[in-house]
Design goal:
With 256 residues, the chain is α/β, with parallel strands linked by helices. It has 8 helices and 6 strands.
Length: 256
């Protein structure tokens, strides 16, 4: 894996990483803090070209603050779907200014594809998978061609489909063998809250209104007491992810 990573800037071949590479990395960083893990991955260029994917949602400030403390120029990929809450876009701008993030890239859907497949802007109401595909999956796939690994803010406690999430995993959404890094995989809600308080980080304004997980406005609803934090995402649909992250639990289907 290390030898392959050193050659990534010279030879762009697929697959970049294997399941065995992910297993070795999980063993190596098993006891490391999220900060130490990120400092090694980024500071030592361990995985080649790395970017983070951020929704600038309810819990995004923690990972972005960790990254900014190491290198504020790390590429941050934000899927500007055209369906976000205004509060999310304002929060994005607040965090960019507060943390000094200089590598944010707004990824937008292709105009021609929107005109062909979602001219009315209502595809979310009858085909949420198709809406996610053209507004999230495709724009992200195009951007990821430039990167070898991505850093995500996923946590195991967020839903049953994310329980047992590893810190390193091979992205199974394509054949490129990109690596996904989940430095907060074992963090709890209490860990997040403590970090936010310790660093006086601003909170997404919708959290206080009952939105513990925030996606596009038409497909996000408030969450009731005792519900899964992601219960408000695509409520009423047999859907748990937008297609960017493939569920890995037994019995789950990839969502595209």
């Amino acid at each position: 894996m290390a030898e392959a990573a050193r050659k990534l800037d010279l030879i762009d071949t697929a697959p970049r990483f294997t399941m065995a590479d992910a297993a070795l990395l999980n063993a190596r960083f098993g006891g490391a803090s999220a900060s130490d893990l990120l400092r090694t991955v980024i500071g030592e260029n361990l995985l080649g070209r790395v970017a983070t994917i951020s929704s600038f949602g309810a819990e995004s400030a923690v990972l972005l603050h960790l990254l900014a403390s190491i290198d504020p120029s790390v590429p941050v990929l934000f899927l500007d779907t055209g369906k976000h809450f205004p509060e999310t876009l304002a929060y994005r701008d607040t965090l960019i200014a507060r943390l000094g993030l200089s590598g944010v890239m707004n990824l937008v859907p292709d105009d021609a594809e929107i005109a062909k497949r979602d001219q009315t802007g209502l595809r979310w109401s009858y085909d949420p998978d198709g809406c996610c595909e053209i507004r999230k999956v495709r724009p992200l796939a195009a951007a990821l061609a430039n990167f070898d690994a991505t850093i995500t803010g996923r946590k195991g406690f967020q839903s049953a489909t994310r329980a047992g999430l590893p810190r390193f995993e091979v992205d199974t959404s394509d054949t490129a063998g990109r690596l996904k890094v989940n430095p907060l995989a074992n963090w709890t809600k209490a860990d997040l809250d403590a970090y936010v308080a310790a660093h006086d980080l601003p909170q997404h304004p919708l959290v206080a209104d009952g939105y513990p997980s925030i996606g596009c406005a038409p497909c996000t609803s408030k969450v009731g007491a005792g519900e899964d934090p992601r219960a408000g995402r695509w409520r009423g649909w047999d859907k748990v992810e937008c297609g960017i992250h493939i569920p890995t639990q037994p019995g789950e289907d990839p969502i595209f």
